[in-house]
Amino acid sequence: MFDILHRVGIKAPLADVHAALTQVDRLAGWWTTDTTGEGQAGGALAFKFGERGFIDVKVLADQPDRILWEVTDGPPEWIGSRIVWAPNVSGDWTVVMFSHTGWREPVEFMHDCSTKWALFLMSLKSLLETGKGQPWPDEISIGDWD
After folding, report:
1. Count of beta carbons in the 10 Å neighbourhood of residue 42
2. Which end of the chain is more exposed for a tag (fewer CB within 10 A), N or C?
3. What's residue 144's pLDDT?
4. Model pTM greater than 0.70?
5. Residue 93: beta bridge partners?
6. Cβ atoms 69, 61 nearer than 8 A
7. Is residue 3 within 8 Å of 102, Cβ to Cβ?
């Protein structure tokens, strides 16, 4: 199995980061504006990207230092994979350790997703530090798959 791994430091309290990873209106502020569902453990979230597709996740864990999603529907490469958010406090920063685990092989789409995850993590950072993220459909384009 293969994993996407990222780390980002955010100048915001842990509680604000946690809210941005669990509350629908906050998720819509940095990932996709078309976000619905329930972000607490036992809930499910739906993320839509217009004609580009969708991602449905089940929320398996919702703790201040660990949020775990399992992908239940969406791109075939994503189904069954897990997305882990592990925020922790480091001085004035909340450091988010991000993992998208369980890719069967490192196909070209995985490379695209790794880049997009990095951009959306920067969108999360921007939302929390400036009040404005860059969620889909206004995210930075990386080329022909956008």
Report:
1. 10
2. N
3. 67
4. yes
5. 90
6. no
7. yes
